[in-house]
Amino acid sequence: MELTEEQIHRYSRHILLPEVGGSGQKALLGSSVLVIGAGGLGSPVALYLAAAGVGHIGIVDMDRVDLSNLQRQIIHRTSDVGRLKTESAREKVTQLNPDVRVTTYPYPLMAENASGVVQGYDVIVDGTDNFAAKFLINDLAILTDTPLVHAGILRFVGQVMTVIPRKSACYRCLFREPPPAGAVPTCSEAGVLGVIAGVIGTIQGTEVLKILLNRGDLLTDRLLTYDALPAAFRNVRVRRNPRCPVCGENPTITELHDYEQPVCTTPAFL
Fold first, then answer.
1. What digits encode the pLDDT tens for the residues 54-106?
2. CA–CA distance, 147 with 171 (Å, rounded to integer)
3. For residues 143 and 217, what is the distance between their CA atoms, to the nearest angstrom?
């Protein structure tokens, strides 16, 4: 695969980086990323991956754009209210970069369809807002051996963690199972500063590009947290749990399961 003159110009600032160069840009154009959730986190992830020239982006989201989304979900516009988020996101991605092929999945990710959806993607991005989806996505990543970049946000705080299956700690190594319903406030109850989604989402996008380029130190075996009020980042070291039910030495979870959980519950304070 050779870069066209237009692509050389478009991606020139990448190509100037010794860590990327022409070969790295070709790798990005030949890669594929599944973004689950076209909301606060998925918006900056999808836009920056598209700008970077990731060749194929899958977008999973069953919802339609609501006016209350626009405070943080920057991929959507006021004129998109009422549209499927997947279609709104596809439109913005292709307008930004016609090099990018977008596949949309305008339905919920469930145990019965998740393995089929993720097939062929190099990396999974968790941009969801509920525990049920996050545990399903973690298990999906482990069982399909697909790298995962997890994140969550609530109020003024966000967290990011990268999972390389069988090599680093997974989400269940930290949090064994979903909490009881009502144990953690929903985003509609507690609120979220819109820009936090941008801060955390762009860190997720950075992790994805590092995975695809095989460069730098990933956020593996550590949970990066950000609190906007004191403007403080913190690295929390974590370890892979040999008794983890999905990635441990004797796993008890060997197939995907759905979990019941109220929508819009964020895991930032798990």
1. 999 999 999 999 999 999 999 999 999 999 999 999 999 999 999 999 999 99
2. 12
3. 24
Structural element, H or E, at residue 136: helix 131-144
Tokens 């009881």 correspond to 180
Q: Which two tokens stand for residue 216?
A: 């730098």
What confidence category does residue 184 fall into, taking pLDDT thresholds of 50, 70 and 90?
A: low
Q: Helix 42-52 to helix 194-213 angle, to the nearest 10 degrees?
A: 40
Beta bridge partners of 161: 150
Residue whose pair of structure tokens reads 């060997």 in the numeric block: 254
Bridge-partner residues for 126, per DSSP? 36
- The alpha carbon dihedral of 132, 145, 209, 237 has a sign of positive
Looking at domain 19-237, does it have CATH number 2.30.42.10?
no
Domain parsing of the chain, residue ranges: 19-237
